[in-house]
Amino acid sequence: QVEVVESGGGLVQPGGSLRLSCAASGRISAIYFWGWYRQAPGKERELVARIVGDGTTNYADDVKGRFTISRDNAESTIYLQMDRLKPEDTGIYYCYADWGRRSGPSWGQGTQVTVSS
Length: 117
Description:
- The chain is mostly beta strands.
- The protein contains no helices and eleven strands.
- Strands 2, 4, 5, 6, 9, 10 and 11 form a seven-stranded mixed β-sheet that branches. Strands 1-3-8-7 form a four-stranded antiparallel β-sheet, with no helix packed on it.
- A hairpin with a 4-residue loop joins strand 7 and strand 8 (77-82).
- The radius of gyration is 14 Å and the shape is globular.
- It starts with a strand and ends with a strand.
């Protein structure tokens, strides 16, 4: 069964850094989109960053220059390095991997990121 499992997250002060990890099982080479969404309290889930199958990366405008998504094929894992964190980055971060299946992408359980002094 294909699945994704996240790790990382936690409480950090404004200006600090965190790194999230997301390991996927299944045919890693067949993933079309692999990345992170986040959901802030009272808001809808929004795309933060993703890696396309050809290695292209996409970022939400408000994280460009602060967040970096990367992929380690040997470890079947992607990472989200988050620097210069702001209180508005607070939320639950969900990893997803999309193989283009009719059933939709696989989602992780979510990990809490809290940026507060």
